[in-house]
Amino acid sequence: MAKQKLFLLENAQTLVTMNADRNIHTNGWVAARDGMIIAIGSGPAPEKIEGDDRDQFTSLDASNCVVLPGLVNTHHHLFQTRTRAYGPVTDQELFPWLQALYPVWAELGDDQFYQGALVGFKELMRSGCTTTTDHHYLFPADASDNIIDITVLAARDAGIRFHPTRGSMSRSQKDGGLPPDSVVQDEETILADCERVIGKFHNPEPGSMVRVALAPCSPFSVSPELMQETANLARKNQVRLHTHLSETKDEDAYCLEIYNKRPVDFLESVGWLSDDVWLAHGIWFNDEEIVRLGKAGVSIAHCPTSNMRLGSGVCRVRDLRGAGSPVGLAVDGSASNDSSNMLAELRQSLLLHRVIHGAAGMTINEVLEMATLDGAACLGRTDIGCLEVGKACDLAVFDLEAIGYDGAHDPVAALLLCHPEPAREVVVGGIVNKQQER
Questions:
Q1: One domain for residues 205 and 311
Q2: Number of domains in the chain
Q3: In the chain, fewer beta carbons within 10 Å around the N or the C end?
Q4: Neighbours of 152 (CB within 10 A)
Q5: Model confidence over 344-388: pLDDT tens digits?
């Protein structure tokens, strides 16, 4: 029998659980066995924890630190770290931005896909993120057929919990779509590889490090038939579905012209208005659509920095959450955000919605909920997003002695109101990753 792995974080000045009661422990501690939390509390950790002597635990001293549940990033395009701040499109909106970058991305090779993923993972972890998804829809003709495998390898090397989504584009410009021929695949190839990736990597067990979802790119890059067949395949294999939707007014116009439907109506027509779906962006929903999405339990990945950078608009976060849609936070691709800093994304969301709705228009607790609990809901996970017995031991440890937090009175508010400082450590499944060494 393999030896059990025991982990103990102790002496946290402030331990934020995000549990149902929103308990915050002063001088907090949390203990884990084999990556899952077995006990949590305030004050000195007991000498015996769930039957094990405390000196058997690998210990992490979190004195003068705020500890959060590991942050959850619900939408990314990791390969885009290869084209940050790309000069010709620094002032372009989404459609011309994509059209300019598709040919550049078409030249990426396997080494660049690995490096792009590794950079994104390290940057996310440095900002307190312990779980991320990746919407990989780009498969250049000259690149490997197994790009998803490359990103999974990079995630294992980084030590992050990973939700790769096998994306797809099948409608090129000759078919009335947006991407060029060089980055699309035929639908038979797409569906076969979706099934392969699920079979090879998807692990639905609690505490799993890799879960797979299927993710046609958008209404302007795939056919309705591929959307339907992908949904059938996902449900057959009990995995989740993801796509971009209602990011720009251009997309609304495209769907009306090509499908004679608004994006949400298109989504419903292909069988995607369901609680196993999460959508990236969701900016241009009208009141009636928000009600329908909430009733169906569709989740949304809110990407404030990317949406601001491209001038796309602002997601109606409070309306969506009020209607019943979980709304997670996301950095989006590093060519429309030019960063993979999750803590910075929390701050951006807080400030953006306060500009629109006033200082009470978005609270610190709401943003923390989106970055943890709602993020977990987007990914269909009940084992991450909060700190309580039976959940994964995923922690983000922030040092209050960092210069950016000097003079802060409220240690939790400081993480969002002050300029984001790197995490001192992140813990993923009870394994410590020291971020300042990276």
A1: yes
A2: 2
A3: N
A4: 21
A5: 999 999 999 999 999 999 999 999 999 999 999 999 999 999 999
